[in-house]
Amino acid sequence: MIPQSFIQDLLHRVDIVDVIDRYVKLKKAGANYVACCPFHAEKSPSFTVAPTKQFYHCFGCGAHGTAISFLMEYSGVGFVDAVKDLAQSVGMKVPEPERSEYSQKKASETHDLYGVLLEAARYYRSQLKDSPRAVEYLKGRGLSGDIAKRFGIGYAPDAWQNLDQAFEDYGAKPLVTSGLVKQGEGSKRYDVFRDRIMFPIVDVRGNVIGFGGRVLDKGEPKYLNSPETPVFEKGRELYGLYQARRAIHDAGRVLVVEGYMDVVALAQHGVGYAVATLGTATTGLHVQKLFRQADEVVFSFDGDAAGRRAAWRALENSLPELVDGKSVRFLFLPQGEDPDTYIRQHGKDGFEALLGSAVPLSRYLLDELSSRSDLASAEGRAALVSAAKPLVTKLQKSAFRAQVLHALAERARLAVGEVEALCGLAASDAGARARAAPPPLKAPRAKTAPSLPREALRLVISAPQLAETMTDDQRRLLAGDPDYAPVAGLVDRIRDAGISTTGALFQALREWPDADLYESFAGEVLEETASFDDARADLEGILGKLELHRVEAEYGELVSRGVSTEAERERFNALRAKLGELKGGRRVGNVPPV
């Protein structure tokens, strides 16, 4: 856990313009800076960075956030890593939280694993130079020394205890925990990787977290991967992503292939935006990570039965992650071909021409399901809808889902509404609408102008310093009206966290359960150009109107029921005087003081 106070201080010290300009060339446009959005394809710039608010927003795709969230989305790193990178750039040290003896031990073990894996990678690289057989194998696969160096490729010699040469203590526990060494009967240890070309698996920060080893000659298994460890989880990691990030950004797409050699061979021939899963099926976490890198993901699999099964699994796990503006396509190579062999024979242009024929997910989904049913019969069309139901219900409600439902309805010879009902989507959508209480800002009570609560919230988000200028009475006034409760809650959070910029506010929002309400103002606050004094005057005006409504309501209630006690008379006269004050000295009704 990184203290919120440190995060706020960090965001005050970094300049979001400098941070983003390192990756995306920004151009001055009035008080702000603009560029073509790095998170979706566009020809005219809609990505705007506001230095005064330390905040960015894309008016095309809606992406927004701070310097921290930009690094997370652009580089695909986690929150902690993004904070550490920014802190290092401004000379700040991220505070280490108090840890129990157990957690300190775990952290130390993780650190040891990174060190052990890095040292093993260095050892394997050094052994490659001394193995003419391994070098000839790589040359025979068309790889240059430069590409081998770029991917850190090495060689594990054909001996039982190679790593005894690389480590002083071959009996050290991290060698086993990292998956480099196994312990057999009688405490006898031996290397896991022997006589294999070694491909280091690197995370997005450049840490070696595991290895893939390929046999040079015939042997089983053809590929051997590191087991899962405290620093390596196959369902999260992708081989080659660290090296491919720049090429992915430039191409606007990421290509997912099946093997290490495919990734390396494609990079050798100029297709540098390829990655590979690590001996496991594509997971939802993989897809999330891929969509953080590019709007288009292309899965390339062999055309055999195993490749088709892998493609279908990738399709199933992609469905929940698909939103408008993101796309998935599938490329099935000719029988007996893989990306490595194809690009060596046809070159970059030939491979990318083939890539252009990749099938969109929607078509592959419907074509595959249709091929399993007889669409000439009513029974077959009913089977099609039944088979599609568990898949289309994974899709988020979006224009894309609507398109898929229309295409499914056409093949099933049904109306779209009928398909929605059969898939349980019409009922679930109606239920969701019924369960979702309308936000107070969209349905204020009749006594309050509909725009006032929303305007108050927009003002505070645009100028968080307003929270500190508000009196306790004004804060209580907001909290006492349900329409303004979101404003009161925001004021409290800003004060508690010491937030002073819109960017810092949106960074803090990520931990709030009602973040969506506040984030819906992202575009509006970025365009706000009023001075702080003007914003404060506008907020004072809204608070004045709110106070007037409150006093009028209580005064009217007393008038309607009559005044009978001394306390009620005192309150009535106080309210009457307050109304006169709020109305600028104008007479209040026809009822005299009592």
Secondary structure: elements and pairs:
Blueprint: H1 4-13, H2 16-21, E1 27-29, E2 32-35, E3 47-50, E4 55-58, E5 64-65, H3 67-75, H4 79-89, H5 101-129, H6 132-140, H7 145-150, E6 154-156, H8 173-177, E7 181-183, E8 189-191, E9 196-202, E10 208-215, E11 223-225, H9 241-251, E12 253-257, H10 260-268, E13 274-276, H11 284-293, E14 296-301, H12 305-318, E15 327-332, H13 339-355, E16 359-360, H14 361-371, H15 378-392, H16 399-412, H17 416-422, H18 425-435, H19 451-462, H20 466-469, H21 472-479, H22 485-497, H23 502-509, H24 515-519, H25 522-527, H26 532-561, H27 566-582
Parallel strand pairs: 12-13, 12-14, 14-15
Antiparallel strand pairs: 1-2, 2-3, 3-4, 4-5, 6-9, 7-8, 9-10, 10-11, 15-16
Helix pairs in contact: 1-23, 3-4, 10-13, 14-15, 15-16, 16-17, 19-22, 19-26, 21-22, 26-27
Verbal overview:
There is one protein chain. The protein is of the alpha+beta class and 594 residues long. It contains 27 helices and 16 strands. Strands 1-2-3-4-5 form a five-stranded antiparallel beta sheet. A five-stranded mixed beta sheet has the order 13-12-14-15-16, sandwiched between helices. A four-stranded antiparallel beta sheet has the order 6-9-10-11, with helices on one face. A hairpin with a 7-residue loop joins strand 10 and strand 11. Helix 15 packs antiparallel against helix 16 and helix 16 packs across helix 17. The C terminus is likely disordered.
